Amino acid sequence: MNRLRLPTFLLFVSFLPALQACSSSADGPVDGAKAFQKCASCHQVGPNARGGFGPQLNGLFGRRAGSSADFIYSDAMKRSGIVWDERSLAAFLRDPSKVVPGTRMRFWGIGDERELAALLAHLRGFQQAGDGADDGADARRPAIRLPK
Ligand code: HEC
């Protein structure tokens, strides 16, 4: 019995490093939904997204900073004059308080460029999910069901 068990055990152990190498591979595709988990404690996206600790992030591209109707922003964010696009979002997410000094968003920033790109692509998927902006467009827009 012991003679059988030991090789089986060794075989298992010798596979472990290979398994770990797979899951933490730096070359694999970066999953934007997974990257968004860093944001999800404060931000919501999707058809029922609401302001929570942070504003909802639907229809973000082209949206004026500090304009989601159901969230109370810092003066810094409201006065930033930013209209969110690929560039301003990337800069903000790399270093929030550098781009909007005095922002209430407490986030250390994303240093990994591929993670940032995947995250922005993920957020783009919610352009039509209701923008929460103050233009009343939500009511006129047909509801869209996004895949979970
Ligand atoms: C600890 C909570 C928290 C985390 C984590 C967080 N945010 Fe925020 N975020 C906020 C708050 C609060 C604000 C409003 C800031 C203000 O009013 O100054 C904000 C504002 C924003 C804005 C501006 C929105 C607007 O309506 O102008 C964007 C874009 C944003 N966050 C994206 C992200 C993304 C993407 C992540 C994940 C990488 C993230 N945030 C992580 C709390 C957070």
Per-chain topology:
Blueprint: H1 2-23, H2 32-36, H3 75-78, H4 86-94, H5 96-99, H6 113-124, H7 137-140
The chain binds heme C (HEC).
Residues 38-39, 41-43, 53-55, 57, 60, 65-66, 68, 73-74, 76-77, 84, 89, 93, 103-107, 110, 119 line the site of heme C.
Distinctive features:
single chain, 148 residues, mainly alpha, Cytochrome Bc1 Complex, Chain D, domain 2, 41% helix, elongated, binds heme C, metal-binding, Cyt_c_1A/1B, heme, iron
User: Which series of helices and strands comes N to C?
Assistant: HHHHHHH
Distance between the termini: 49 Å
Tell me roughly what share of residues is in helical segments.
40-55%
Query: Quick check: average pLDDT?
Result: 83
According to CATH, the fold-level topology of the domain at 30-130 is Cytochrome Bc1 Complex, Chain D, domain 2
Bound molecules: heme C
- CATH architecture descriptor name of the domain at 30-130: Orthogonal Bundle
CATH class of the domain at 30-130: Mainly Alpha
CATH superfamily caption of the domain at 30-130? Cytochrome c-like domain
Give the strand tally: 0
- Please give the oligomerization state of what you see: single chain
Please give the count of helices: 7
Low-pLDDT runs of 5+ residues are: 21-25, 132-141
Q: Structural class from helices and strands? A: mainly alpha
